[in-house]
Design a protein that fits this description.
By secondary structure, the chain is an alpha/beta fold. The chain is about 25% helix and about 20% strand. The structure holds adenosine-5'-triphosphate and magnesium ion. Adenosine-5'-triphosphate binds next to helix 2, strand 8 and helix 9.
Length: about 600
């Protein structure tokens, strides 16, 4: 049985993000069989040539933070391949470092993967479940003369490691007897030594051109309570020792990870070949996903939370999956985006965030119900409309989807319109309401502004208008057509709401390029509008359902909403900047 080998990734594409529109799969269906990338080619060949009977992949998050957009690529890849090849994908928590790992993260990670639309079924595992087996395998290596206990400090070990151009130096403890190593390792486990006093290292080759092969550390002493194993252990395996062996225990066939682990692959293989593991997994590497205007590093995101730059991991400005959910992104939009990003490519270029937003808008445009809301209200009184009269006008719920039906919206003499929709002295390109001008009120009547009421400070507080009763429903019998159509709410029926408007968290596409991420944080990433009003139908909208506020953008109720106080998040504005970017790129 020969090992499948990964072709040179560099040959697959030249930039990190390559849009392959023919690989697009339709929403909700499994990827079409013609979907091809170098990893799927390898998996298909392994199946075809009988090296693998069932494809088994895994998604291995460390529970030390919330999942972010980068993780979604690894999730879609691992779960997607398992689905497409009729195999299975495990969720395995890589919980080998108890410091910073928490139950809150274990829970949120599961919720977020499900939200994205993937399921591990009964295959939920924890690397910590294998601590006993891993310990036995460490003993196996010691007995085979392939691992030793080193007393050098972390600094000394680094000094001895050498550099890319110079070989490393052997540790003075490298040639301890097997018995001494067994004895010391057992005493490490028994808690006899303080943190950092000793480590267990593989005995490979201090002159290897690959620094990962220069006697890598396998176990370290850490007197820390683990979220699952409590105080049972005070030595913990390092990622390199835990990962491949966990893969082998679970029968993983294709262990997919990001490119920074490519240089670890020889160590992955060395351990698998030198241990009596039950199966032979293989590691393949793909490119990380990054975005413009975004930082995807759990460590930095954790600092944003702990230092109060955002309200939490699920603050809608964050690039975490929990935040995108809270902000109202439909998971289908993210999946559609992920279907288009390539796996190969090196370099540091990032996907344009506008492209993700484009996919999200595409889904929302098809699905989102249309509703009326006024963010910055200005009173409008129709002087010739009967006092006390209320009409119900019929409004279409979604022009893209006739099956969404219509609803009744109350119309009356006193209305709210958007302050931005009126100008007392309009410039030539402003077609909305102005003194003496007629506009259409959506689904209702034409109105003409007859007077402007101001307060003592000169601020406009009210518009006086006249309506044309012949224009009910929004059409004039004489065929005249106002240049603008405005949204509106009946003052008596409008429901107050707070609306949180979001802008990008960073001011530049490449945050931190000048060396300071904090300096690039956008001080205006959130604007809270307190005086908004929405149509009555919105009081019943469940959290998580995104609607279009007509002419304003996509919005969804925030979990901070209470029956007496509605809170909405702006998911996205209406303007598709990705389409613009593409048009610009197409210009010669
Ligand atoms: P971070 O660098 O943000 O702290 P991590 O790689 O340490 O992330 P893990 O929990 O170890 O986070 O990641 C789980 C899986 O997700 C790994 O297989 C990892 O390769 C993958 N992954 C993490 N970040 C990205 C990314 N930006 N693009 C693609 N895959 C990613
Ligand atoms: Mg990691």
């Amino acid at each position: 049985m020969s090992a499948p080998t990964a072709p040179d990734i560099g040959t697959y594409c030249t930039t990190l993000i390559e849009v392959t529109s023919n690989s697009r799969v339709s929403a909700g269906t499994p990827a079409s069989p013609e979907r091809r990338d170098f990893i799927r080619e390898i998996v298909a060949a392994d199946v075809r040539e009988g090296r693998v009977s069932e494809v088994v992949t895994r998604f291995p998050p460390e529970p030390n933070g919330y999942l972010h957009l980068g993780h979604s690529k690894a999730i879609a890849l691992n779960f997607g391949i398992a689905q497409e090849f009729g195999g299975r994908c495990h969720l395995r928590f890589d919980d080998t470092n108890p410091i910073g790992e928490e139950q809150e993260y274990i829970d949120s990670i599961q919720e977020d993967i499900r939200w994205l639309g993937f399921d591990w079924g009964e295959h939920l595992y924890f690397a910590s479940d294998y601590f006993h087996q891993l310990y036995d395998w460490a003993v196996h290596l010691i007995k085979a003369g392939k691992a030793y206990v080193d007393d050098l400090s972390a600094d000394k070990i680094r000094e001895h490691r050498g550099t890319l151009t110079e070989p490393g130096k052997n540790s003075p403890w490298r040639d301890r007897s097997i018995d001494e190593n067994l004895n010391l390792f057992e005493r490490m486990r028994a808690g006899e030594f303080p943190d950092g006093a000793r480590v267990l290292r593989a005995k490979i080759d201090m002159a290897s051109p690959n620094i990962n092969m220069r006697d890598p550390v396998l176990y370290r002493i850490l007197h820390a309570t683990h979220p699952r194993t409590g105080d049972e252990w005070c030595i913990y395996p390092l990622y390199d020792f835990a990962h491949g062996q966990s893969d082998a225990i679970e029968g993983i066939t294709h262990s997919l990870c990001t490119l920074e682990f490519e240089d670890h692959r020889p160590l992955y293989d060395w351990l698998i070949e030198n241990l009596p593991v039950p199966s032979r997994p293989h590691q393949y590497e793909f490119a990380r996903l990054n975005f413009t205007y975004t930082v995807l590093s759990k460590r930095f995101l954790r600092r944003l939370v702990s230092e109060g730059h955002v309200r939490g991991w699920d603050d809608p400005r964050m690039p975490t999956l929990s935040a995108l959910r809270r902000r109202g992104f439909p998971p289908e939009g993210l999946r559609n985006f992920l279907d288009m990003v390539s796996l190969g490519g090196r370099g540091t270029s990032a996907a344009e965030i506008e492209m993700l937003e484009h996919e999200v808008r595409d889904v929302l445009n098809r699905r989102a119900l249309r509703r009326f809301a006024v963010l910055r209200p200005l009173r409008l009184v129709i002087e010739n409309y009967p006092e006390g009269q209320i009409e119900e006008v019929e409004a279409v719920n979604n022009p893209e989807d006739p099956s969404a039906g219509t609803r009744k919206v109350p119309f009356a003499r006193e209305l709210w319109i958007e302050r931005d929709d009126f100008m007392e002295d309009p410039p030539s390109k402003f077609f909305r309401l102005a003194p003496g001008r007629e506009v259409r009120l959506r689904c209702a009547y034409f109105v003409t502004c007859t007077d402007v009421v101001k307060d003592a400070s000169g601020e406009i507080v009210e518009l006086r208008c006249a309506y044309d009763p012949e224009t009910r429903g929004g059409d004039a019998p004489d065929g005249r057509r106002p240049k603008a159509t405005l949204h509106w709410l009946s003052s008596e029926h409008a429901v107050p709401a707070q609306v949180r408007m979001y802008d990008r968290l960073f001011t530049r596409p490449d945050p931190g390029a000048d060396g300071d991420l904090y300096a690039d944080l956008n001080p205006n990433s959130e604007t809270v509008l307190q005086e908004c009003l929405v149509e009555p139908a919105l009081t019943e909208l469940p959290v998580g359902e995104t609607v279009q506020f007509e002419r304003l953008g996509y919005f969804c109720p925030d979990p901070d909403s209470t029956p007496g106080r509605l809170v909405f998040n702006r998911t996205l504005g209406l303007r598709d900047t990705w389409a613009k970017l593409q048009a610009r790129a197409a210009r010669p």
